[in-house]
Amino acid sequence: MTHSSVMRVPGLVRGAWATLLGIAVSAALTVAIRAAYGYDPLFDGEAITIVSLVTAPLFFLVGIGAFSEWFYWAGGKPTRPEDHSSHGAHSWKDYFKVNTDHKVIGIQYVVTSFFFMLVGGLLAMMVRAELAAPGSQFVDSNAYNGLFSVHASLMIFLFIIPVFAGLANYVLPLMIGAPDMAFPRLNALSFWMLPVAGTMMTLSFFAPGGSFATGWTAYAPLSTEVPLGQMFFTVGVQFAGASSIATALNFLVTIITMRAPGMSFWRMPLLVWANFSTSLLVVIATPFIAASQFFVLLDYGLGFNFFVPEDSGDVLMYQHVFWFYSHPAVYIMMLPGFGIVSEILAVKARKPVFGYRMMAFSLLAIVLLGFTVWAHHMFVSGMQSWIRVPMMVTTAIIAVPTGIKIFSWLATLWRGVLNVDTPMLWALGFLTMFTLGGISGVMLAMIPLTIHVSDTYFIVAHIHYVLFGGSLFTIFAGVYYWFPKMTGRMFDQTLGKVHFWLTFVAFNATFAPMHLIGVQGMPRRVADYPEQFATWNLVISLASFVLGLSTLIFVYNMVASWRGGPRAGSNPWRALTLEWQVSSPPPIFNFDAVPTVVGGPYEYGVPGAVHGVFKPAGHPAEAEPAPQEGRARQPAGAVAAGSTDREQ
Amino acid sequence: MASVEESTKAPEAGESGHRGGPVRWLPLIAIGLVSSLLGIALGVLIDWFPVQASAQADDIDTLWDVLVVASVPMFVLVQTVVLYSVYKWRMRPGEEGLDGPPIHGNTRLEIIWTALPAILLVSLVSYAYVVLTDIEEAQAGSMKVRVVGEQFLWTYYYPSPEGGGKEVAADQLYLPVGKQVEFEIQSKDVIHDFWVPAFRMKVDAVRGITTRYRADPDRVGDYPVVCAELCGLGHATMRSTVHVMDPAEFDRWFATQVQEAKESQ
Amino acid sequence: MASAAAVEHHHGPPPANRSSRVEPQLLGMLLFIISEIMVFGAFFTAYFFIRVVNGAEWPAQGTELPKLIAGVNTAILLSSSVTVHWALESAKKGNRFGLQAGITTTLLLGATFLFIQVNEYVHIGFAPQDHAQGSIFYGLTGLHGAHVFIGLTLLAFTTLRAFRGHFTPEEHRGVEVPGIYWHFVDVMWVIVYTTIYII
Ligand code: HEA
Ligand code: HEA
Ligand code: CUA
Ligand SMILES: [Cu+2]
Question: Are the Cβ atoms of A647 and B103 closer than 8 angstroms?
């Protein structure tokens, strides 16, 4: 390769050119097809846009080089040994290239999703500004509908789901003693589909007729009858979904086939269990949202009749297919957080996670039950009424495994040595706020109540208590907790605590009153509301601005500490899990030699307990004998009755 | 790579178990009980709901109270344990190298906290089921109103006394008090949702099918009708009014409607 | 991770421990197939709602589905499952001719299947825009057709490599993994055919 023109070097520049090329090809293709069928306006902007939405991203992905290796392989060339040239980051520029190192990808994921979180948050600020007083402040109702639709879509598909995937990308291979993920190139592709999806959704504001404005649920037939902006959601979700599925598949294969010797399933840290469960959900459920959006795309773009009852279509079918994904999706947005909290509570309370096995089993129970409750979002949809009661029962039952987790965490705290620093504060905040959100969820399971409060601000309150007070609190906890590992530097604990308290107070001031106005009768998704709700909405809006500002403290802390924070040692939290036994940040291939796991991950307080044993590189396997204590009680520790060190 | 040994300074076992002295259960339980009672009082006394104008509203508001009574203690339990643990077992200066006692589990406890919530939930669900059958029960002599939603207004159709499937249309909803109404709800375009907060009842209006619910208006007055399903541009303003009136007054209103309908033919 | 790591740049990662006897590629393909099954599941859900819940007439009034031709097509696709298996067995035995012949035949049979299906679309006499039955008919068969196409693309690469002398009795994952996908596509067709044409 002597000739180094732009089009030969994979990267963002080539990606940009490829995107343009993709649009040109789509236009040509569309015109050709319309000519072949003899359609009248040969040049139809709407059709071209839809086709471009699908093809241009693919061109982009080829352009940045996400497929290069596979093309090489597919071309029939002999498989060359990995040269690892796309592994590890040597300067900040490497973060803008296709990289196969799970640590680089993890950071790419986390930073990208936080970027979209800020955009989504900014949209929420605009929502609150509009709702600060009744009547119209600065947007019309179509723009308003667009604001909360894009807000929610970014938060869900480009923040919560991918940021968990990013955190796990970074720490999970380290935790199980693997040098990388099972399919590093697929991993890179998964990441690069995200900016595509996010950009698409954000750009929808520039579409003629405004952004998509049908909520993140995009119910048909509204979504098949609105302006073009809708397609930016319909297609964007496909890319976000494909990214999720690919990552989940990667996690599953990594967890099953690449654990370090001695790392049996019952010695895996709970974060690994949580991501294992989440990935099962993703692989099984995500295809349903893909299909639901295919149907919308076909009805919208090609005039199919899936949702046209006059032509035997079925409107409610959309909701069944959509919620069959989107209910499990709420657990996709929560289980990884459960994993993070288990890690942090054990380390910060200096105690083993209470009831380790039950913790893992309840994750699996939630996965199973999660598939049996989708219609609780449809209690007032007019579906066959007999479906409601079974769904009410299963929905209520989900509180049981979740309760097991909450109570086990409480028992983990009990009698511990609680180091209440920033990550711990967020974890404790999660315990309290998620419980509240979960309880309002259980109230929502009760059909007669839901008949009244469905589609009101009571739901908005529930959403934010579980997603912000639940998922986002665990994300903050996790980011603070692994920040020293990822950057090699320590963040500012004081700022972290200020961030927590400010957020905690503003969060409650914002979302708690929503329960009240919801029950009093304020519907959700409205740009305007009766005078009666004015006072509370003003309070909520003011509080929400404080909430927005508090996020900036976090951003400042992270950026400043990354650039100039004090060096963090390899194991600042005195943790046992494997990721803390390597340097911060870890060496490029994680380990010189894969460690051997000899005990459970959380044996805090067990004298001399060890989780993993590192043998010097190149030396034979046996080496150090495992300390007896750790070996003796780890596997069945969680349930073994009558263990000697049990509380009397 | 740091060795693992250095990171786990072995705690003096035994010693760590008694940090902070024994748990003082009595004050703890007392605090829990008092805050639960306060929480319940708050939850029940706050004026959550709009006016009650139907028999259904009464049932649903009671269900709410029951749910508050059941869930506040759950919430208080979690709070109390978190706050108490932080208060009592917080890491104090000089304890940085200490570990807690290695308690791995306790089967009896785990069974308790699986079974108790399960029992609680099953009872709540059973009660909710009873309420559900109550609010959907058909009463003798109910009247029918067909409600049709379209972007962005509601129209109400009453069966005409002439019979033969003829109907009388109105753009606001008028109902006699004390008589059950069965709403048959339809949509001409996208999905809407026919919600009368004062009745506590709602159901989607779905194109292609007819959905229905019953309400027993039991209080004279004017109440808002709200569209509760995002239906596009005008969703926020898709409102109308239900007038619940004396049966005699309703009959007069209905007679004029029938008359007008005839004249306009 | 910059500087410290740069030193180690030239040697690769330590070999990962193999904690399961299952091949990663195989497991990955199986999981992918699970999610593919779910995609079809969603389309069958749509079919179920239109035909059973909504009680639409099947096939739509005045239309007819070419059971016979589609049946022949089914046989073609099923036989390609046999030939791809033959290719794999030959690769395992080091029989290059069998590998090349098997994989080429599979490719041809698959292409024939697609051709017949497109031909069927042209002559079937209704469009997806006509009614929901048409939508789901084209939806399901089209989804399946797209999968045949993906399978064919994978197999085309395998063919290319087979003719370039790749694949040995020890290393034949490049035949096995696309082969599994191909079997999945075939089995899925039997289900699609049965529900759409027969029942
Ligand atoms: C992280 C996301 C998340 C999570 C974890 C949950 C968890 C739960 N959700 Fe939530 N939900 C959403 C996100 C989430 N939800 C969103 C986004 C929507 C709105 C979608 C939309 O329309 O836009 C929604 C909507 C929604 C509805 C539909 C409302 C409507 O539109 O009419 C319902 C109804 O049943 C519901 C129920 C539940 C239940 C029972 C749980 C349970 O899993 C909660 C279990 C947890 C606990 C109960 C707390 C801890 C347990 C104990 C301390 C034990 C003891 C407790 C008791 C005995 C009560 N949710
Ligand atoms: C994880 C998910 C998540 C998160 C974190 C949030 C966060 C917030 N949400 Fe959101 N929300 C949803 C998920 C989420 N939301 C969902 C699923 C819906 C339902 C949508 C639907 O009906 O379809 C919804 C709907 C929703 C509504 C209802 C709209 C309606 O029904 O009409 C409201 C109204 O107040 C709201 C408000 C907020 C606020 C104030 C925040 C705050 O927490 C935001 C805090 C602000 C920030 C974090 C950003 C701060 C940054 C800056 C100010 C600077 C920005 C700088 C740059 C961009 C460079 N949300
Ligand atoms: Cu009609 Cu909202
Ligand atoms: Cu749900």
Answer: yes
